[in-house]
Amino acid sequence: MWRTTLVLYQLLALGQPIRAEDNVPAAIITPQDCGLDCVRQGGPGCEYCRITRADVKTAVGLNSIKGFGSCIPWPCFELLGKEDRELCQHYVQAPNDVEVEFGNELEPKSDTVVVSWKPSYYGIAFLRGFQVSLRALGGTSVACQLFLFHRNLSLPASHAQRVYKSDPFPGLSLGSEYAVTVIALPVPEEWERFYRSKIFSTRSCAEKNGLEQCKKDWYPKHVEVQQEGTTITVTFNLAPPNLGIRGYFSLCYANGMKKYTGITPNSSQNQTHHSYQLNDLEEGTNYTCEIAADEVDAVRKTFNVRVLKIQKGGSPPLSATPSLALILPLCLAGAAIFLIGLLAALTRRRLELWMKKPDIEPDVIKQHQESGTQEEVMSLPSKRLTPPRLLICYSSCDGPAHVKAIMQLGGFIQQHMATQVCMDLWDSLSVAEEGAMAWHCRQIRESDFILVICSRGLRHRPKPPDGDDSGAEDEEADGGLHFGSNAFSSAAAVQLIGEEVYRAKAWGRDLSKYMAAIFDYSDEADIPTELRLVSHYTLTRDLHLLFSHLHTVALHGPGRYLKINHISDEGYTELPAGAALQWAICEARLAMTAKRRHSAGVV
């Protein structure tokens, strides 16, 4: 009995400090400006140190890509494991409570964030640091920071309540989506739960600076509509003079018709409000109107206009004379008799029409049936528990504009076509670890579908790079778009895909796993010979066909068809990701045209 009491007493004694610590605010740890030498020596002032790119270059002899900062694959093994390999052999669980805080940056055109997190209880005694990477969704920009503890440090479990912070990530585009990943170090092989990711959006220009300071986000807030007879007058507030908006426009919709009105205010008369008239509107019609600044992608303000019907040739107003008291009752009685007779006539006529067989043209009936066809809602098949996995292969030989268009295409497919997209630039850490060819081979084997973006550069098979040119490495590091021999590895991956296609065709297997596509600035001749056997599409015209291929759904059926919102050659631009894709394709088209003209001039 006394042993049980003693055990309970010890448990209560141990539990009191833990409960007391719950009410204590978590300590916030910010990075220290100490170098890698201090971390290796284990000095007392090196508990949480930022590791710079210069430290990595000095220790490893590696001039890492500029966009990656001081981050390298498996930094614990490379930076701390040379003296003692046991330091980097333990498992450490992923961090918890990853949060993103916005900083007070004075630059109005960009945003700054600071990432915070808490370490996990599991393996905290063997924790050696953190690696924080930030990547733009649908883009190629990457930023990375590395923080290490000194080699003699062993954190207790109570430090799991501490909040660790990163250095600021400045220069982020406003209104954009980013993914931040916090990795706990060390990272032994075959360990999957060592990182935590979080997707967030930066503030819009209006959220950060206010609507009156953003030309792209500004729109008229106050719109007033007045009607006097057949004249419709609309009054709205003008943009602040500092935005430099000089023109506006208005669009009104009704019965399938559009009414455009250009507006050019005179700032010398009134700098706050302006009034304009809407002419040639049909009486008795309700219009939905939009007003916006005459700028690209301007935000539109919607308002309604109801045009009243004006009675023409009306009788003059009655005069207030003594005879009005005698005439008014007679008029009311006559009107009542007239209404009763009219109601009786209408009732009799309705009975006659009801008894008579309707005489309607068959073409009219057919036209009515076609116009009233109901759209049947079709759901995606529920066989697959996870979205299909799509690998996109391409060539970077056509320049950064072509690569940007492919990045935007991958982002659009992943966000709005219910598909998991795999690309080498989105998984650069695994590519650096496995090697480009090994990574492509694994993705070809594990992906459900493979899409090859064909272009002139892909058709021109580049030769493998010879020698080691440090100048070229620095140029690639500064550019941030060409990762080593991407062109050669992509061409080799296409050859592997071609061999798989030939083998599947020879054995009578299904070829639906493989697809080829071109943008409208490329030609069908750019599709390699080995990919002529598979389905090929022209983007963005065939987005709905690509969706049908990825999800194995028919676009048409007996008396029905599949309607996919915002996935068409015209509708995809209504989405932000679709507008970004359209703009990237336009830039790539201009770049490819200029490149071809330059090549023709050189020849």
TL;DR of this structure?
The protein has helices at residues 2-22, 36-41, 53-60, 75-79, 205-209, 324-355, 362-371, 400-416, 428-434, 436-446, 456-459, 470-479, 486-506, 543-551, 576-602, and strands at residues 28-29, 49-51, 96-102, 110-118, 129-136, 142-148, 163-165, 169-173, 177-185, 195-201, 223-228, 231-237, 248-254, 257-263, 273-278, 285-293, 301-307, 389-393, 420-422, 449-453, 514-519, 535-539, 556-557, 560-561. The protein has 603 residues and is an alpha+beta fold.
Describe the protein.
The protein has 603 residues and is of the alpha+beta class. It folds into 3 domains: 189 residues, Immunoglobulin-like (Sandwich); 97 residues, Immunoglobulin-like (Sandwich), CATH 2.60.40.10; 214 residues, Rossmann fold, CATH 3.40.50. Helices cover 32% and strands 23% of the residues. It is built from 15 helices and 24 strands. The strands form 6 sheets. Strands 1, 3, 4, 7 and 8 form a 5-stranded mixed beta sheet that branches. A 5-stranded antiparallel beta sheet has the order 2-6-5-9-10. Strands 19-18-20-21-22 form a 5-stranded parallel beta sheet, sandwiched between helices. α8 runs antiparallel to α15 and α10 runs parallel beside α13. The chain starts with a helix and ends with a helix. The N terminus is likely disordered.
